[in-house]
Design goal:
Elements (H helix, E strand, L loop, with lengths): L13 E3 L1 H7 L2 H13 L11 E5 L2 E10 L2 E9 L11 E9 L5 E6 H20 L7 E5 L3 H13 L4 E5 L3 H13 L4 E3 L10 E4 L18 E4 L12 H6 L1 E4 L2 H7 L1 H8 L8 E4 H5 L13 E4 L4 H20 L1
Parallel strand pairs: 1-6, 7-8, 7-10, 8-9, 10-11, 11-14, 12-13, 12-14
Antiparallel strand pairs: 2-3, 3-4, 4-5, 5-6
């Protein structure tokens, strides 16, 4: 008897390491992909929560998501002891799947994906929250890969008139300031007190306690905090959160993971309703904004699986387009 057709051959698994990831998509292009996904109706509130497992070297994170024609999962390691070994603090891989069949399509470097998507999320927030008028002083806390990525992302959206780098390691802070100057930006190292004259403050550190006095932040300034995703860790203080209009990626995720908001709430300084809006609200025009705000703006990001998926799909498509030319 003739046999039926055999199973169709699965497509070859595309592998994208750190160099292709950095080359294929800029933070601004990744921000465009995130904005398009939100405008198309993706709802971050329905994104699965992050799973975390304590392991001897640090923490193992599992972040699955599905949307449209794709699904994916990031397995990320956070190893605080790695930098002393000359290894990256963030490790891992991202597996991108075809949505209807769940056939694996691509394997991406997880650290490189995170280093791209986090600045892209911040760039999208900056696009919708930055006050009108020329960009002034940027105060950038941190000196690791996220700090470099955020400097690039900010420059793509609104090049600052001055960049001030604040970091625990003076040598690394100086290196980042030199990198900014190589890009044609006036830059120097500074102290937390420099936030008093800042139009934009970006926090991308491993700090677990506030980095600066929130009373110093000027009305209308924008603070972006991306460094923590744990209820007991924060980069901003209660004084800033109490004063600020607060925006997040997702209310549900922020109220699970954002210590920047949960600690002031536990202190009784704010309530759960203190959040002014979400990234989706901003992108889809559900919040009317006009003129320079009368109080600081705070965008608190915890990093979400839907963002990884959207940027991974954009990278996969860009890789396909490049190979076809």
């Amino acid at each position: 008897m003739p046999s039926g057709p055999g199973p169709a051959a699965a497509p070859a698994l595309r592998q994208l390491g750190p160099e292709p990831t950095a080359r294929l998509l800029t933070p601004a292009q990744a921000a465009d992909a995130l904005e398009e996904a939100l405008r198309a109706g993706l709802d971050p509130e329905g994104c699965p929560r992050r799973s975390a497992l304590a392991v001897p070297g640090g923490e193992l994170l599992l972040m699955p998501a599905a949307s449209g024609g794709y699904a994916g999962v990031k397995i990320a390691g956070v190893a605080p002891g790695n930098p002393a070994r000359g290894l990256p603090r963030i490790t891992g891989s991202y597996l991108l799947l075809d949505g209807p069949t769940l056939i694996p399509l691509a394997l991406l470097d997880g650290a490189a994906l995170t280093a791209l998507r986090t600045p892209a999320v911040s760039a999208l927030a900056l696009r919708h929250l930055a006050p009108p008028g020329p960009a002034g002083r940027l105060v950038l806390f941190g000196s690791g890969p996220q700090a470099y990525g955020h400097l690039d992302a900010v420059c793509a959206e609104r090049p600052p008139a001055e960049t001030v780098v604040v970091a625990r390691d003076a040598g690394r802070a100086g290196e980042l300031a030199s990198y900014a100057r190589e890009r044609g930006l006036p830059a120097r190292t500074g102290t937390p007190a420099d936030v008093a004259g800042a139009d934009l403050v970006v926090c991308c550190t491993t700090a677990r306690a506030p980095l600066f006095d929130g009373r110093l932040v000027a009305p209308g300034a924008l603070v972006i905090a991306v460094g923590s995703h744990e209820p007991d860790a924060r980069e901003t203080d209660t004084a800033l959160v109490r004063r600020a209009a607060v925006y997040v990626e997702s209310r549900a995720a922020a109220l699970r993971e954002a210590g920047d908001l949960l600690i002031p709430e536990a202190e009784g300084a704010i309530g759960a309703g203190h959040i002014s809006g979400t990234l989706s609200d901003l992108v889809r025009g559900r919040i009317a904004r006009a003129g320079r705000p009368s109080r600081p703006q705070l965008f608190k990001s915890v990093g979400m699986a839907w963002e990884d998926l959207v940027v991974a799909v954009a990278l996969f498509r860009a890789a396909g387009a490049n190979s076809a030319t």
